[in-house]
Specification:
Layout: H1 2-37, E1 44-49, H2 62-77, E2 81-86, E3 98-102, H3 109-118, E4 122-124, E5 137-139, E6 142-144, E7 151-159, E8 170-175, H4 178-199, E9 204-211, H5 213-216, E10 221-226, H6 228-232
Helix pairs in contact: 2-4
Protein name: Secreted protein
Length: about 250
């Protein structure tokens, strides 16, 4: 009986320690996720998207809906809340609430404002006329052209604008096409643990390439480069050409 009692006690202690250890690991992982996304329990966040067409009601495009579906579980897991707002209806600064901004600056005013203020080294060609550079990204001195359905680029960024550590971040998903925005949100959802280990709770800007979206949709994504430095510094001015003067 004594041995049986000791065995039951040891088993109970093992179960209790196992439960405590799993709970400890789960809580630590949750705290890291909350810190990375700036979403403590019951925090408020913004989901900023484009309007579909000129409809005064907030109607979201199909791929933007898919992007929001990638982000919603992350917000819920942190125990936070989200508010869906149109890009032209947000009239506040950043740092007070975590913001997830999805869209191209050519049609998303909020994205255009963020990129102008926070990413001066990035330019998006919004020329409506057809041409090889239409929709291209320029990051620093490098240019990334769009090949619709074959090779497309998207920027995913976590930015705090050098504010206090407790400031809430802004997450940007800026793609050359709507499907690339979905690819970027899915990339963040899948790799946020690794990104948090590498970058901590600081700023980063990553350039992703979406491969053959006409066949694979948003699933095949490659990391092109970490372009944080180039994106946050002004684009260097092109070298001035000297005028030649011929003696008469």
């Amino acid at each position: 009986m004594r041995l049986l009692a000791l065995g039951l006690l040891a088993a109970a202690l093992g179960v209790a320690l196992g439960w405590y250890f799993r709970t400890f690991l789960w809580k630590r992982r949750l705290r890291r996720k909350q810190a990375f996304f700036g979403l403590p329990a019951n925090a408020e966040s913004l989901l900023v998207v484009n309007r579909e067409g000129s409809n005064p009601e907030l109607m979201v495009t199909r791929h933007d809906v898919f992007s929001l579906l990638e982000l919603a579980p992350l917000i819920k897991e942190c125990g936070a809340h989200s508010h869906l707002v149109a890009h032209d209806a947000v009239q506040q600064g950043f740092g007070e609430r975590t913001e997830f901004c999805v869209g191209n600056p050519a049609i998303n005013r909020r994205m255009a404002a963020h990129m102008h203020s926070l990413l001066p080294g990035v330019r998006v060609n919004a020329d409506p006329e057809p041409g090889p550079d239409r929709g291209a990204f320029q990051i620093g001195s490098e240019r990334y052209r769009l090949e619709g359905g074959r090779t497309e680029y998207v920027i995913v960024a976590r930015l705090t604008a050098g504010q206090a550590p407790e400031a809430r971040p802004v997450f940007l998903f800026c793609g050359q096409r709507a499907i690339t925005n979905q690819a970027a949100t899915r990339y963040l959802a899948r790799h946020h643990d690794r990104l948090a280990r590498k970058h901590g709770n600081g700023s980063f800007v990553l350039l992703l390439k979406v491969v053959n979206s006409q066949a694979y949709g948003p699933d095949v994504v490659e990391l092109v480069d970490d372009v944080t430095r180039a994106a946050q510094e002004p684009i260097p001015a092109p070298p001035q050409q000297r005028n030649s003067h011929r003696a008469k």
